[in-house]
């Protein structure tokens, strides 16, 4: 099937490349955030745990389980964003290096020949969908990692005074991020079915 379109002979292909560029750019920012999160190591002597202990006592301080979950979710987010970016970059390379064939112009056109790439649209859509799923999963894991960062810095969510500060940070996070992900999934699904 032709992935190119329009009189310029590459409109569809350029749209796909632009979409893939957008995925790679956003994933790069999120991958950097996940990598910085992995580089940060909470410790018992750090200010985060001391603040948590001051706010709600030692019972409100995040334990080893929260810290291990923090690292786990950062690693999973990093892996998902890396997967999504690599798939998007591979698709972009395929679209750019795939052989372009001359195509006859329409009878009323002024240009004699245009060039178009013949790319399997179904395979391209599946690749873009896989890249989008990787981005969504990465956002979910990064959000869970940030919830654990809040618990390390402000204390566990279930603790009295420290818990209310933690909830104040977590509620906007778990409201806005899933809302944005639902909008993103809806747009990807709409584009996927067209």
How would you sum up this structure, described in words?
α1 packs parallel to α4 and α2 packs across α4 (121-154). By secondary structure, the protein is mainly alpha-helical. It has one domain (11-193). It is built from 5 helices and 2 strands; from the N terminus they run αααββαα. Mean pLDDT is 75; it is low at 1-11 and 44-55. β1 and β2 (113-117) form a beta hairpin.
Q: Count the strands?
A: 2
Number of helical elements: 5
Contiguous uncertain segments of 5+ residues: 1-11, 44-55
| Run of helices and strands | HHHEEHH
Strand content: 5-15%
The CA-CA distance between the termini, in Å, is 15 Å
Given the C-alpha coordinates, what overall shape results?
elongated
The side-by-side strand order for the widest beta sheet comes to 1-2
Cα Rg:
23 Å
What does the largest sheet look like? 2 strands, antiparallel
**Helical residue percent band:** over 70%
Class per helix and strand makeup: mainly alpha
Indicate how many domains the architecture comprises.
Answer: 1
How much is the average pLDDT?
Answer: 75
Transmembrane segments: 71-91, 122-146, 166-192
Protein name: Maternal effect embryo arrest 60
Keywords: Membrane, Transmembrane, Transmembrane helix
Organism: Zizania palustris (Northern wild rice)
């Amino acid at each position: 099937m032709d992935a190119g379109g329009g009189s310029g002979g590459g409109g569809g292909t350029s749209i796909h490349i632009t979409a893939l560029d957008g995925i790679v750019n956003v994933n790069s920012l999120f991958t950097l955030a996940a990598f910085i999160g992995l580089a940060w190591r909470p410790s018992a002597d750090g200010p985060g745990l001391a603040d948590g202990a001051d706010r709600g006592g030692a019972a409100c301080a995040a334990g080893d389980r929260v810290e291990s979950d923090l690292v786990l979710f950062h690693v999973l987010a990093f892996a998902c964003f890396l997967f999504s970016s690599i798939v998007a970059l591979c698709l972009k390379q395929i679209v750019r290096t795939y052989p372009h064939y001359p195509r006859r112009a329409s009878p009323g056109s002024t240009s004699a020949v245009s060039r178009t790439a013949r790319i399997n649209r179904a395979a391209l859509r599946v690749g873009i969908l896989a890249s989008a799923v990787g981005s969504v999963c990465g956002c979910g894991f990064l959000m869970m990692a940030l919830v654990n960062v809040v618990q390390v810095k402000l204390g566990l969510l279930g603790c009295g005074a420290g818990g209310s500060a933690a909830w104040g940070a977590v509620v906007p996070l778990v409201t806005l991020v899933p809302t944005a992900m639902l909008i993103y999934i809806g747009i990807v699904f709409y584009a996927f079915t067209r």
